[in-house]
Amino acid sequence: MEKKLTIKEYIFIGSMLFGLFFGAGNLIFPIQMGQLAGSNMLSATIGFIITAVGLPFLGIVAIGLSRKESLYDLASKISPKYGAFFTIALYLTIGPFFAIPRTATVSYEVAFASYLEPHQLQLVLFIFSILFFIASLWFSLRPSGILTWVGKILNPIFLVSLALLIVFSIIQPMGQVSEVPVVESYQAGAFFTGFLEGYNTMDALASLAFGIIVVRTIQNLGVTKPSSIARNTIIAGVFSLALMVIIYASLVYIGTTSQGLFSISANGGTALAEVSNHYFSGFGAVILAIIITVACFKTAVGLITAISEMFVTIFPDKLSYNQYVYIFTGISFVVANLGLSQIISFSLPVLMFLYPLAITLILVTILNPLFKDKAIVYQVTTIFTLPFALLDFLHALPEELKETLHLDFVSEWAKEFIPLFKIGMGWFIPSLIGFVIGFILSKKRK
């Protein structure tokens, strides 16, 4: 008889889910989206929550249903070469190319940037990132229980500080939502703009990479059937799901009302620093900055460790764990010195490419009982999605680069002929057609 989890075990798993998906970096995107969406914040928030909360949750459920041991095993349903490509691309994205450097730059923006003169910014970022990644390297080479201890102490303090910020923003709002202007990108289709903004959290990608951690935790508690794992994940996730929705919605509100006192910030880190200074003054803002920095540091070490271990697994005869740690830490340091705004700008095309592939993989995996997990459905759906994900990648490239490479005509052609391309969803109809064709073929093949 399958074991039933206790309330204590459900709370434990729910806390793990929240810890996996909500890092300090997740603070910056909803708060800036609130500044941009203005009085259209509600529809933008709903779109954001779907991709920032709903999709990661479905990703965990998909891993639980798939009976696979890793993302590589799951993506290899399409083909082994595709599985290797997708796994490597995803891990590098949530690792040294974007997510790890972002941990350092978010910390820097909140802790230092608002107090510096423009000519000091780059030098201080360089010094801060050196210290940040030297410490990350040291802990990554020596996995230690101190990080777990820091997490247990830090997370409650972090949540209390955030709760205070939210309460102050409600009691003493900086402005009125109805009076905040809406920038052009959120005037029409705020829902879909918010939907795409949720890509920046990278949590749906992370759910495919680290979902196996949650699945194994549930298995270790005595639950083994895939359907029971998925059901228990859903039950345990209700708490963390609700908490994340409340936090994201509150941060969007804070960002929107901040327009009563501040102009639109260059990035969410700057916006968070300004709001913290307003409500907590000097000392309180410094404490919040320290908490966020330590939280980001813990996330950086966790990502460096996990990704180095994964690359040792994928390429067992190439480099050692320690060598991967040095390489990924070095890359993260270099990328971090581009600055938070540049990192976000460069990550957007990659996310526009990877997210359609991740979304379709998650949804097809959840629907696999309908077609008995036959590979043809995964393959045809991905074949139909891939070209349109590539078009999204080209369209999201920085304008200067598109002009240099003479790629402007691609975006103009796609806007005219591909349905939903203007709102970043050009892949949706082709992937649906691919799924239907794959499903029909699965019924005709033994």
From TrEMBL:
Superkingdom in the source lineage: Bacteria
UniProt keyword Aminoacyl-tRNA synthetase, yes or no: no
Keywords: Amino-acid transport, Cell membrane, Membrane, Transmembrane, Transmembrane helix, Transport
GO molecular function, one term: L-isoleucine transmembrane transporter activity
Record membrane topology: Multi-pass membrane protein
Gene Ontology biological process terms in this record: isoleucine transport; L-leucine transport
Example of a GO cellular component annotation carried by this entry: plasma membrane
A Pfam family this chain is assigned to: Branch_AA_trans
Sequence intervals crossing the membrane: 12-29, 41-61, 82-100, 120-141, 153-171, 234-254, 279-312, 324-344, 350-368, 375-397, 417-441
Keyword Nucleotidyltransferase: no
Subcellular location: Cell membrane
Main subcellular localisation: membrane
Free-text function comment from the UniProt entry: Component of the transport system for branched-chain amino acids.
Family according to the record: Belongs to the branched chain amino acid transporter family.
Identification of the protein by name: Branched-chain amino acid transport system carrier protein
Organism: Jeotgalibaca ciconiae
